[in-house]
Amino acid sequence: MAERNLYLTNLPVEEALGLFTKALEPYRKTDTETVEVIHSLGRVTAEAVYALKNSPLYDSAAMDGVAVVSARTKGAGESAPLTLRQGEDFIPVDTGDPVRPPYDAVIMAEDIQDAGEGAILIRAAAAPWQDIRPVGEDIVQGEMILPGGHKIRPMDVGVLLSGGITAIEARRRPEVAIIPTGTEMIEPGDEIREDSIIESNSRMLEGLVAQGGGVPVRFAPVPDEYDLIKGRLMEAAQRYDMVLICAGTSAGREDYTVHALRELGEVAVHGVAVKPGKPVILAVVSGKPVVGVPGYPVSAFLAYDNFAAPVLEAMTGLRKTSAPVVKAALTRRLVSSLKHREYVRVKVGRIGERLVASPLARGAGAAMSLVRADGFCIIGQDVEGLEAGSEVDVALYRGLDELEGALVSIGSHDLILDVVADLTPRRFPGINVSSTHVGSMGGLLALKSGEAHIAPTHLLDGETGEYNIPAIKELFAGRQMALIKGVGRIQGIMVAKGNPLGVSGIGDLPRCRYVNRQRGAGTRLLLDYRLKAEGIESSAIAGYEREAATHMAVAAAVASGSADAGLGVLSAAKAMELDFVPVGNEEYDFALPAEYLELEQVKAFIQILKSGEFRDKLEELGGYSAERCGEVILVGG
Amino acid sequence: MAERNLYLTNLPVEEALGLFTKALEPYRKTDTETVEVIHSLGRVTAEAVYALKNSPLYDSAAMDGVAVVSARTKGAGESAPLTLRQGEDFIPVDTGDPVRPPYDAVIMAEDIQDAGEGAILIRAAAAPWQDIRPVGEDIVQGEMILPGGHKIRPMDVGVLLSGGITAIEARRRPEVAIIPTGTEMIEPGDEIREDSIIESNSRMLEGLVAQGGGVPVRFAPVPDEYDLIKGRLMEAAQRYDMVLICAGTSAGREDYTVHALRELGEVAVHGVAVKPGKPVILAVVSGKPVVGVPGYPVSAFLAYDNFAAPVLEAMTGLRKTSAPVVKAALTRRLVSSLKHREYVRVKVGRIGERLVASPLARGAGAAMSLVRADGFCIIGQDVEGLEAGSEVDVALYRGLDELEGALVSIGSHDLILDVVADLTPRRFPGINVSSTHVGSMGGLLALKSGEAHIAPTHLLDGETGEYNIPAIKELFAGRQMALIKGVGRIQGIMVAKGNPLGVSGIGDLPRCRYVNRQRGAGTRLLLDYRLKAEGIESSAIAGYEREAATHMAVAAAVASGSADAGLGVLSAAKAMELDFVPVGNEEYDFALPAEYLELEQVKAFIQILKSGEFRDKLEELGGYSAERCGEVILVGG
Fold first, then answer.
1. How many angstroms separate the CA of residue A134 from the nearest CA in chain B?
2. Using CB atoms, which residue from B367, B368, B576 is nearest to A142?
3. Alpha helices in A63-134 (DSSP H)
4. Of B92, B145, B368, the CB nearest to A371
5. Minimal-distance CA residue of chain B relative to A249
6. CB contact under 8 A, B297 and A205
7. Residue B534 CB neighbours (<10 A)
């Protein structure tokens, strides 16, 4: 086997950043460039800017009216109107017109009366300088308009121009090279081979660099060949202000990055105590910062945020507006390790008086968790874990106002939740559906602990054959609950196109490689119920212990050929172009405490369920019935 | 005289916006266009986006190591190592490599031992599917990646690409025509004629439109000619999605805009109950929204924010993140009118436990107030005024964290405050100097009411000839105060270049047109003190009642020729290239409660005062001495 270099350091973020900053210290400089003011929006001033002109440029009329010589208006009064003659005693002026000696006051149009033949009547004397904007009233020549290090906003552009400035010295925008690596990387739209990975991290990094005020320069993916990687790194470090190199940062057979960087320059850090994102490299080549960004997308995001962003900020002078940090109650226990600080993506919503944070998928590869999250819950390195219900700090990357309008749904997954999440904010701006998938039972438990507004559920009562209501009655005895009817849906066995094993029902599962749902999922309970009915032991099912978290994940396993069969809904089978052997109908509904029926989010949700648009979508997805969809049933209490 | 059209309506903002929206209703549509995902940052999805591919595309190794057939690893244990052979029992894999049948588990590199000749030893059995990322674990084909109406962020770009999406339907970015008008308008850098106005509002509007997600298309300034204005409006409304026409929106002689709009389309509103910014026009031409934006910069900003921004938001689908609203104590009484809602620009800072809001210049022309402000204090139409100290809502346009680091200075003005404000945040990131100029006495009073951290002051005690300390002792009897020594500065009479009237001292002022400072200003007190000493009555000074708010404003009045003389500091005279007749030295210091010496902002401030960089700047400005600059003296207590 090829040599592996297994040893990474495990430095805390601050210590690693400190070493990086120190290594960069000798090369620190601030480049500036001259920028036309009309193109300066968002740029950062390199130095203070002082006005070259007064604004207004001269004493000018503050109102539409006439400019007069104040001394000649003395004596005018309500009962003693005074006649003024144009050209002698007054001249007409519009707002902004210059007022020059001998004129030293303006009388506004509303206070004069036309007396014909170029004469007017006034009924009040004008005080000297009345309704005149003196020269420089707004901006005085020599006055500082903007300090150095200021990010230029639209109003700044206006004032700079008014102050006679046409160009400023601004910090040069740093150019950041982004080098994806990996022989298996393909570009978006390329034909997919059997070991392809669609290169996407560099595109996320392009966006982050652009948002941070840098100019991203993306390279084409470089195959895993030592000389190629080294050459590209050298070229990029010489030419650009900063380099981000993606993947190959760990210590595997083909992780050449660190070796190339050691030859080219100084590696300050290799390995940080962060999860996800341990295999980070922080290096200096040709005096330029180089960040080796791990290949997993969440790791890449965190490596950028923790290490590349601060260095870029120092170059641009743009301080990142710090994310609002809120206190929220954790909905699930989180176990972490003393080996690292962990960044857990969470959904956040307001339930009653408190904010709750539901952890999303924690894997480094869970890019969707970055998309779906409202923020990060950070578990310090000194913390082994956090209990459910404990108060945590969440660094938000969405505005708090957006979260206030969230309908927090925790429970069973169905594709229709995506549809509702799409339709709701479009019809009800400010309201959105935030859902986390933990199975039916997990949802009801979350509801009970006050961590969700609604719980999508499809729980079959083994004794009565009734859906959902018995489970709610049992779990919420004595409490007034409600059930919003959702959809009837067909559950069945998903098998490969053409049903090659000839699966016709539950009885055929013992001869399949099965993929199951997680514990607490209604679909798993349905399987157990049916197995029991048919007298089949779960141990007879190969893959009973193999778990997937959603219908779609089960469908994907079957579609990929790694499993022969899995239980799920028709819409998932259709989405993956699988064959489907119906097993039975079930009721997928939404449980909630009755008092939440008064919430705006819940009202909006019910309206969406009842809408024609939603029903059209169900038709499109297939396998659903919606006769009672949106109907509210009170349960217990 | 030409006809004037004096009558504007006075509609509340919401009512005006309602009429505008209603007039636009028949023409509402959402244009979309196809956008490549790699260029989609910041764009808004027109519809929900569903994944076309799974990610990962196949079952893949989650770690560097070997892929094994789990069944063949049974029995391996710490004391019973098992030998596996490459190609038979295992294949080496790196993170992300596909794992295909018969392989169904991965053992990570750290857990294997090289046994030579392509063999390895393992000391634990592998569970099926261990360390394998199942196909679709992150993104499942058919899953919704983004809902409609979503603004695309960097992580969204990455996930879209991983989900096999290369292009999306996005809302088309609206093109917004911006038409400046006015015969007197010149472009930045053009030669300044005697009635020139540098056209700048359209440039501010360009920035606002760009920040709002639109594409600004600026026209060259159109002279005040009816047919030209009408033609340009028609052209713009036909070709672009929205039109902003600047100035000429009032009811003056040359305010043609409303007449042209009435001929071309429908004027929904002319005149709103807002100050500044009453003369707004809201119209519809060729089905396109047209906003007539008043000519004063603050009015223009508010007209955009109140009327153009919401219409643009409806087109782009980008919801403006609402400005944080904070409660703050007003430092000065504000009188307003029942005729309108007023938007007062304020500086905001934290003094002890509370936030304080200091009103800035209120004029519609005070563009610098937009630049200097931290936010708006909005005085409702039903409120006649607000007392000093009353709690008001301030809509911030700066982050609260920036305000927390502000050293709030209220008092006398000197150019060195600009210099300190420039140097401080550069040397002490996160700390900034926020200063408001109300004169020395006003500053001490603000300090007394707990509205400022420091008060720059130069108050001469008429009896002792001592500066500042007597005034502080008197005003803060019994309280432990401190004085941070500032600069010695030369006050003198500023006169036109060449001193045409031959002014040699205070005694010559009765034969000059004078421009004074506002009541409470130290410089005015100095004048009074000197006049008294020379036995001159203030009524003997023409222009004694003409007030300017800063040294620079006085200098500008003299430079423009509208005054012959004014008292001020040498640096102001130098900045305006005026001659200067010295009258005396004075001490410009900073008063503060002694406990504030412990604040980080104050410590930073003192360090800046003591720095070489600051002293170099003083040298450059001229007229200052800095022997004791930064020295702290305890006063009273």
1. 7
2. B576
3. none
4. B145
5. B95
6. no
7. 11
Distance between B271 CA and the closest CA of chain A, angstroms: 16
ipTM (interface predicted TM): 0.91
Model pLDDT for residues A476-526, shown as the tens digit of each residue = 999 999 999 999 999 999 999 999 999 999 999 999 999 999 887 889 988
Q: Does A57 sit within 8 Å of B198, measured CB to CB?
A: yes
Place A589 in a pLDDT band, splitting at 50, 70 and 90.
Answer: very high
Residue B6, pLDDT above cutoff 60: no
A-B C-beta contacts closer than 8 Å: 377
CA distance B198 to chain A (A): 6
Cβ-Cβ contacts under 8 Å, B128 against chain A? 543, 545-546
Of A448, A450, A444, whose CA–CA distance to A355 is shortest? A450
What's the gap in Å between the CA of A330 and the closest CA on chain B?
Answer: 23
CB-based contact A31:A171 (threshold 8 Å): yes
pLDDT in tens, A591-628: 999 999 999 999 999 999 999 999 999 998 888 999 99
Amino acid at B212: G
Residue B154's Cβ-count burial label (10 Å; 0-12, 13-18, 19+) is buried
**H-helix or E-strand containing A628?**
none
HSE-CB for B484 with a 13 A CA cutoff? 22
- Please give the Cα distance from B178 to B175 (Å, whole number): 10
- Non-local CB neighbours of B618 within 8 Å, separated by 6+ positions: B416, B419, B487, B624, B626
Residues A69 and A102: beta-carbon distance below 8 Å? yes
What pLDDT, on the 0 to 100 scale, is given for residue A179?
97
- For residue A3, pLDDT beyond 50: no
Task: Look at residue A253 in the predicted model and tell me its pLDDT.
Answer: 66
Q: Is A222 helix (H, G, I), strand (E, B) or coil?
A: strand
Mutate to test the interface with B, among A371, A397, A426, A576 (most CBs of B within 10 A): A371
CB B162 within 8 A of CB A388: no
Burial class (CB in 10 A: 0-12, 13-18, 19+), A185: buried
Spatial separation of the C-alpha atoms in residues B129 and B117, rounded to whole Å: 27
pLDDT digits (tens, 9 = 90+) for B165-190: 999 999 999 999 999 999 999 998 89
Task: Give the closest of A162, A199, A250 to B367, CB-based.
Answer: A162
Give the confidence band of B336 by pLDDT, cuts at 50, 70, 90.
confident
- CB within 8 Å: B367 and A159: yes
Mean pLDDT of B505-530: 92
Instruction: Please answer yes or no on whether B92 and A184 come within 8 Å at the CB atom.
Output: no
Q: Indicate the DSSP class of residue A149.
A: T
Q: Do A188 and B56 touch (CB under 8 A)?
A: no
Q: What is the pTM for the complete model shown? A: 0.91
